[in-house]
Structure formats: C-alpha cells, structure tokens
Amino acid sequence: MAKNLLRFFPAALAMAAVLASGGSVAQGDSAQSRNGAGRPAVGTAGSFEIGGVEVDATGKNASAARLAGWRLAQRKGWQMLSRRMGGGGGGLSDSALDAIVSGIVVENEQIGPNRYIARLGVMFDRNRAAAILGVSGKILRSPPMLVIPVEWSGGAGRVFEQRTDWQDAWAAFRTGNSAIDYVRPSGTGPDSLLLNAGQINRPGRLWWQALLAQYGASDVLIPIVHLSRLYPGGPIVGKFQARFGPDNRLLTQFSLRVASGDALPALLNAGIKRIDQAYQAALANGMLRVDPGLNARLPEAEIAPTETDESLAADAGVLESAGAGNLSVQFDTPSASAVEATERTLRGIAGVRSAVTTSLALGGISVMRVGYDGDVATLKAALEARGFVVTLGSGAIRIQRPRASLPPPDVQPENATAG
Questions:
Q1: Is the confidence at residue 341, as pLDDT, over 60?
Q2: pTM of the model
Q3: Of 9, 153, 205, 244, which is the most buried if we count CB atoms within 10 A?
Q4: Quick check: helix, strand or coil at residue 179?
Q5: What is the DSSP secondary-structure string of 12-66?
C-alpha cells in the first residue's frame, strides 16, 4: 500500500486521547474533487522523521493492539533516530516519547481483532529531540525554492489546472530531513494561471522576479514526470526530470517502473525521494544557487547570501591577501560523530587556535568558527593533505570529502517491476 496519512475512525479516538500529551497524529487531507484545487502541503520542517518502522503487536481488541503498535513504533523510531545522530540508541519512557512525538504516519497497516501489523513513520519534534540528544535542532537550509510540479500524461502537461497525482505526492512529501526549503503552492487562487507548464519555458527575469515575490521564494525548482501507461491498470513507466532555475536547466533524469496502476503512488514517492536527493547534492556541490539575474533589481538586504548557499563567492583573493584570522568553515555533517571528527582534524593543524561548531545541521552543512594564525594558503594545503576538497571564499572556507554516488531508490528502474 502506498503511503497515506492516517485518517481517524472511531477505534482510533481513544488512542489519540492517550497521545494527546505529546504530539498530534498526522491526518489525511479532506475529500476534494479531483478537478478542484490542489492538495495543501504537509508542513514538517520542524520534525525529524524516521520511516519504515515495522511493528507487530497484539492486544485485547483492535484498538488496544493498534495503540501497542504505535507505542512500539515510537520506541523503535527513537532508537533509530538516536543511532543516526551518533548516539547509542538509548531508550526513553513512553511518557517522555509522547512529549516529543509530533506525528505518526501510516505507510501500511493490517488490523485484526486483536493483532496489529504495520509499517509506520514517526515524526519527532526537532527542538525537543535535539535537546535530549545534545545536538542543535537547527538545520541549514537552501534559500526558499518555489516548486512547480509538472505532470505529463495523455499528451498534456498539467500543474494546477486539474488536481494531479504528482502534485498530491509533492504536497504529501515530508521535508523535515531535507536541506531544501521547498515552497509548495496548494493550487488555489491564481496558482493555476501563474504556475503552468508554459511558465517554465519563459526565461524573462523581470516576470520571474514578480512571480517569485508573490510566493516568498528566491528561485524555482521544476520537478517533471512523464507517465506512460502500457494499458489500463497495467504497468506504468515514469520518466522523471529534476530541473531548476528560470532557464529550466536539467539537473538529472531517470526512469522508474511499477507493475500495476495501484502502485502509482509508490512510483511517484520514489521519484520525489530521488529528485530531493539530487537537489540536496546540487546544493552541497554549489550547483544549486540563486540565479544572479533574479537578484538584479532587488535591494541588497533581500539578496544577502544564505548560510548554505551564497557565502562562498569566487573572490578567494580577498581572503588570501588578508590572512586568515577568524574564519567560517562550512563542512558536511552526515552524523554527530562527523562534527567531532572534523573539529579534531582542524585543531590538529599547526596555527589553529580554536575550532568550534557554531551552527549544526545533521545531514546537511554545518558551520564552524576557526581561529587561525597564519596564511590561508598554508591552511588550505594542510586541509587538502588530510583528504578534504577545499574552496576559498570571502571570509569563509568550504571543505568536503569526495561525495559518494546517491543510493538507488526503493522502486526498480524501468527494466524491472515493483508491486
């Protein structure tokens, strides 16, 4: 079964009351016509999410078994989150978990008279969980990026003219673990007129500036899917493209296939996951950055660089001629242990007085304040000797290890099938 947010029914009301001391349970969108407005986006930027938690629980009735399954999912999810953050996966009491769980997401469930088998997702409040784990809950994110999800099916390209499965999938995508700040319109009001398949091919910067200003975004992301159905109810092939910017630049493209029409949500979810990975990798590599033409007529305060994107301009000579002193060093932090390891490496370099992480983004790019006495070229050489790729900027340094290729998605490529 494709991922669906939990819809309440009478048997769940008692469980919701038990969990009321903590967070809320995620709910599905209300019934809407497929020809009506799009689906409102799920807001989860303030959460850590752990998906794919398998549970098998029993109880004296269906309601008790389901509650036991949710409790078990919370415990297992917390252990997984703790290990991801570099901890030992230590447990918390159920009452403590109730206080930090912000939602339960049903990916697949089977409910019997006294047994509950399910695959669930658990969302933890970012600030509360981070405080318990001893890490910062702040995540460095990209500038706000307007998402225009284009679905091509039956020879027509649609965004918000009609409600589409692609727009639904993007609205349901939980962004808490992503470094991309997605701005996802709901398809109401003028969205269907302003955001359409024709707009993505208009390169005029002044029009794009006016459009992005209405949505509070700095640039645009254009995820596209071409859906081909071999026959009604049969296999579906999705050809995905991750595009960005007012020039509609192609970042990556790939094809996925599922065996039946019922698996379309799984196909789209896998495509979104892989597109998000591509956008995050492009952000980390400096490829995904705000188009300079979109900032040409904006006041300087509005085009100030963000922590993750624009602080490493190409004027390295300014930094080299002035000497290092106190520097901002941006570095990848896939886990909490990576923070300590990078700090230790910096402190081991001759001339470094101090190295303290001032902004932590687990799974993204963190910022370290480094006190250094010496020439920046010497520091650059020392870092490169330790295996880092070093980019010099105006008052900042970006260091990173060579990046591995992205992991494959859960759905098989086009020449395979998935149910």
A1: yes
A2: 0.53
A3: 244
A4: coil
A5: HHHHHHHGGGS-PPP-PPPP--TTS--PPPP--TTEEEEEEEEEEEE-SSHHHHH
